[in-house]
């Protein structure tokens, strides 16, 4: 913070670096626990009772959410000052919130691993305001309260920066997404006793995050990076951005109904959920067209080829994962057979990777050379290593998705389609799918190798493009 960095437009952008670094550390943890789970699918007593499957799954999914949040916060701290054309309101507050969030996150994960979940609930006085025990929202109430405090401080810091600076479509869309993220998280504190009502509002956090406000954050980061690496007029990018977020919000909000098919909600959701969730691939298709259009109209050849690959790759992979694989089993008559099968896991893995993992890696790839004082891009060796990471991770995730899709189809065939008397039991069905799970584990190992390549690319020193390189790229 105290050492001037000529490759940053504003010195306060440097606070993004610890957020990005810690996000990548947590990403490694998420992948490692994913591999543990993958092995437990085929070797059921692996690491039992040290790390039971339910604990590994809880850590895996919680790390996913937390590291993406760190990535989004780092992206905002890098992007907002440059868009607002002024220093961050309080870099010190940003660093304090980083340590609060990091320490709370680490303690929560350690709590999952070291204390039985019921004991953790008693230890954190969950009985005062019961919020624990729900998938993805397993965090103790005290951790949830800490997240709210961090979110409020973060929004205040970003908001004050925007209020005093230039307002652009990119920054305002990101701010809208971040506010929506914080507001919708408040529903994690609402835990009604009625199970149907509980699941109804639970999706207001889980679905309306990933298929609603997170898409605004994704779109704003993508627009920012494309403006920088292509040199296309901001007005052109902003028009595309407005169209994309409009479609994302309309289809995403009403498309929440595809989670209401089988929880006791009114039957009208069978129609609303089917129709509007079938339209959800459209904003992702628009993102693909948007990215390729901007690259086709580019006015400069940006030296950071790796960042360009991540930017284009996130649109294509998100369209496949969130769009195509989401559509495959979103219609109610199809979902009747596929709900909760390995097809759901296939969709979830590719959608999260394409839409959110890759967009965070995009902004890290673009910003890190500047944050490290290297200029617009790292050296050729670093970029080759990063491109290896891009292809290894992306191909591995596609392989995981295809294997889980095949497993899901066999699962439906053996367990869901036959009459009750002929249907195979769940455990016998899982045994029939073991070959897919072994191959999925192998693909996961290659994904980890790709992630290691991504991290190793930062060990390579880059070539400086001069003290005015960052200004030139605006």
Model description:
Helix content is 73%, strand content 0%. The chain has 474 residues and is mainly α. The longest helix has 37 residues, at 380-416.
- Please tell me the overall pLDDT: 93
Q: Cα-atom Rg, whole angstroms?
A: 22 Å
Distance between the termini: 22 Å
Annotation field: number of helices: 17
**CA-based shape:** globular
Helix amount: over 70%
Q: How would you characterize the largest beta sheet?
A: none
Which structural class do you get from the secondary structure elements?
mainly alpha
Assembly state: single chain
Order of helices and strands: HHHHHHHHHHHHHHHHH
- The amount of beta strand, in percent, is under 5%
Number of strands: 0
Low-confidence stretches: 464-474
Supply database-style keywords.
about 475 residues, mainly alpha, about 75% helix, globular, disordered C terminus
Question: What would you say about this model in short?
Answer:
The protein has 17 helices and no strands.
How are the SSEs ordered, and which strands pair?
Blueprint: H1 16-42, H2 53-84, H3 91-114, H4 117-123, H5 141-163, H6 169-185, H7 195-230, H8 234-254, H9 268-278, H10 281-296, H11 305-328, H12 332-338, H13 342-371, H14 380-416, H15 426-432, H16 434-456, H17 469-473
Helix pairs in contact: 1-2, 1-16, 2-3, 2-5, 2-13, 3-5, 5-6, 6-7, 7-8, 7-10, 7-13, 8-9, 8-10, 10-11, 11-13, 11-14, 13-14, 14-16
């Amino acid at each position: 913070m105290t050492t001037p960095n000529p490759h940053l437009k504003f010195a306060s952008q440097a606070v993004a670096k610890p957020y990005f670094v810690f996000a990548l550390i947590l990403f490694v943890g998420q992948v490692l626990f994913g591999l543990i789970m993958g092995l437990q699918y085929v070797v059921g007593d692996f690491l039992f009772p040290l790390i039971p499957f339910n604990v590994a799954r809880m850590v895996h999914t919680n790390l996913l959410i937390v590291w993406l949040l760190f990535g989004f916060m780092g992206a905002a701290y890098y992007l907002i000052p440059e868009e607002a054309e002024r220093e961050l309101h309080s870099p010190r507050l940003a660093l304090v919130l980083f340590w609060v969030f990091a320490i709370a996150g680490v303690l929560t994960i350690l709590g999952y691993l070291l204390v039985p979940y019921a004991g953790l609930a008693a230890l954190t006085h969950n009985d005062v305001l019961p919020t624990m025990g729900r998938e993805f929202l397993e965090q103790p109430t005290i951790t949830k309260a800490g997240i709210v405090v961090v979110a409020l401080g973060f929004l205040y810091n970003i908001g004050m920066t925007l209020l005093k600076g230039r307002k652009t479509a990119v920054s305002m869309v990101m701010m809208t997404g971040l506010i929506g993220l914080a507001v919708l998280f408040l529903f994690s504190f609402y835990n009604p006793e009625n199970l149907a009502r509980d699941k109804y509002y639970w999706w207001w956090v889980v679905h309306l995050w990933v298929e609603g406000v997170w898409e605004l954050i994704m779109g704003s980061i993508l627009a920012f990076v494309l403006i920088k690496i292509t040199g296309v007029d901001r007005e052109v990018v902003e028009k595309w951005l407005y169209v994309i977020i409009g479609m994302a919000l309309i289809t995403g909000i009403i498309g929440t109904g595809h989670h209401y098919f089988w929880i006791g909600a009114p039957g009208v959701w069978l129609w609303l959920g089917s129709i509007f969730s079938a339209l959800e691939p459209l904003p992702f298709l628009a993102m693909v067209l948007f990215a390729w259009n901007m690259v086709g109209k580019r006015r400069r050849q940006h030296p950071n080829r790796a960042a360009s690959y991540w930017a284009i790759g996130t649109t294509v992979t998100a369209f496949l994962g969130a769009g195509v694989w989401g559509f495959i089993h979103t219609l109610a008559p199809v979902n009747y057979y596929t709900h909760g099968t390995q097809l759901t896991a296939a969709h979830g893995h590719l959608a999260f990777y394409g839409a959110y993992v890759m967009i965070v890696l995009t902004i890290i790839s673009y910003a890190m050379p500047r944050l490290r004082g290297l200029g617009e891009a790292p050296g050729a060796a670093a970029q080759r290593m990063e491109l290896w990471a891009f292809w290894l991770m992306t191909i591995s995730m596609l392989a995981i998705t295809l294997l889980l899709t095949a497993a899901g189809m066999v699962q439906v065939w053996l367990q869901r389609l036959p009459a009750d008397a002929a249907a195979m039991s769940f455990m016998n069905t899982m045994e029939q799918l073991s070959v897919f799970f072994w191959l999925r584990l192998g693909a996961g190992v290659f994904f980890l190798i790709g992630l290691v390549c991504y991290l190793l690319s930062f060990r390579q020193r880059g070539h400086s493009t001069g003290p005015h390189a960052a200004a030139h790229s605006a």
